[in-house]
């Protein structure tokens, strides 16, 4: 039974809408600030680098070409100098970081989550399995290989992005791997108060059902940034509120007052003994499961557009003297 305490941080800050370099600088500054407060585990918002594609929520497809190309230009290649800068910061401060990025893989973009271990290695790169609604104009799909819990310095960590939390089988895939700390990531500054309320319900439910801690980060936009994305004041309403940066215990309780507006870093201590306390009563993948009735088929193969079949070696004919 785990008896240690882990200090966690959930970061709610605005990206630099001008591009990757400025947002990476904000990430590095936030890592330093959270580490100075004793944080060992730090979570950033969904596709925070360079920024979430808010344009896709308020622009019709015919007008998305230029901002989509801008996003591709500023997106993150994994690995690259951008990821190395974060890795170096993790190693320097001995912290585990979950960072959301727009990943560029040649001609495609993906909603990717990177888990950096405390030695700077990338313990996991996964892609959101199904982009949501407007996001399908921007990102490709991930696959089952990323539905993985990884061992880190702070424990067994898993991650999902935004509405992936509405896919119960995706969440169950992580539960079956005995997730101890779950990183949730949402864009923030989107949809309105109803989104904020829905995020809270979803994060608290996952903590209860999985018997793990949830550290969830949502992003933030300033009024100037909202106006920069779209000048129409009616459409600007769709880019306000919707923030619920929170840290939840396995008993479904907030461990700190959640951040629902403005920038800030939420800090809370995770008493790992609470995992056993919760699972003693209800272990959804153990004594409370009924695998002979209900079970999950999880295909962990990486999806590929190229499958190579090597030519078989044909036997060579030899000439022999009569």
TrEMBL record:
Name this polypeptide is given: Nit6803 family nitriliase
PANTHER family: CN HYDROLASE DOMAIN-CONTAINING PROTEIN (PTHR46044:SF1), NITRILASE (PTHR46044)
Molecular function as annotated in GO: nitrilase activity
Pfam families: CN_hydrolase (PF00795)
Superkingdom to which the source organism belongs: Bacteria
Domain annotation CN hydrolase: ranges: 6-272
Gene3D superfamilies referenced in this protein's UniProt entry, alphabetically: Carbon-nitrogen hydrolase (3.60.110.10)
Taxonomic lineage from the root: Bacteria, Pseudomonadati, Pseudomonadota, Alphaproteobacteria, Rhodobacterales
Protein family per UniProt: Belongs to the carbon-nitrogen hydrolase superfamily. Nitrilase family.
